[in-house]
Design brief:
five-stranded parallel sheet, alpha/beta, 16 helices, Rossmann fold, 392 residues, 42% helix
Amino acid sequence: MAIGSLRAERLVPAAAGRPSRRFAPGTPPPVAARLWLAERVRGEMQAGSVVYHAPSTAFQSPGGGENQLIQTGRYLEARGVAVRPFSPWTDRLDRASLLHLFGMSREGLQLARVARAKGVPVVLSPICWIEPRAMAALATDPVGRLANRAKWRLKAIAPRWPTWRRDLLRAADAILPNSVAEGEQLVRWFGADPGRIRPVPNGVEERFALADPSAFHHEHGRGEFVLYVGRIEPRKNVLGLVEGVRKAGLPLVVLGDALPGYERYAADCRRAGSGFVRWLPRVDHDDPLLASAYAAARVLALPSWFETPGLVALEAALAGTAVVVTPHGCTREYFGDRVGYARPDRPEEIARAVRDAWSSGPDPGLSAHVGAHYPWSEVARRTAEAYDHVNR
């Protein structure tokens, strides 16, 4: 069965006897993401809530996946859905209307098994991309590199070989990958049922279309630069970006902190960027300085080992900034030929793509394309369709 249709009948029905729910559209009131999360975990869980779960370490260093959870919840609440981030100390799944897992984890699998035992439907947003080249390249030793290659060659030959990821996908009544390409990977690598797959794109807040550079200029001065926003870690290829921008002879601003455990990698990046990279600490996603940084930048560069498609790339594109991204992942499905592409292990290619974007500026249709196709309201609508179906 082909992947990509959003028709409800493509999904495998959930257990019979559950009442059908319909949700009305709406727009959430403005509220800081951290405040929304803190408020939703207070007190007793409302009966019939949609329970959200992410791995227990997720919000120790939040990124795009964590923002996906929060924004999906906020916009679904505006449609009348009661959303509850899961508290293992107090919440009982038998009081929930369904369980929505964000990210693939063993603890999510255990929770999914409890939900199914209690007759509660399970929806999974995998936020998953398998890139064997990246796994091999990011291995810290030659033995690990060979082991990774062998592992994924075996998975390609025998996708139905038992693994916890395969079990998790089988436990989900609906699977919501961020792209058709991600859904196809789940089928190819783990034998996921295509009939349960409903691609739901990542989203972007409309406020980024109104981004103004003034706040960033006031805080950090004027001047044109290439911008990177995100965690400093090997998968994001910050060291490769630094090398590529050095070859391009352009200034770079890095806005973000080291992922815990990668402080040595961050130090290597700083040494490599001596003299032309400005390092700024992470800002909250709701901080106006983030949108202002996008507007102030001449190019947003994200030549990671893979992206699905990279929340910051969507935000910068909507803000009217030229974008260079990795070709690995589902970036082409989102951006087409409206952005530049550079492979992470090719510094000369990164340099060329960044220079081209610097010279040509943003594609004239990029911002409008992103604004029309990827607002969070559309993400919420498609997610609500999946909820409606599994609750029939």
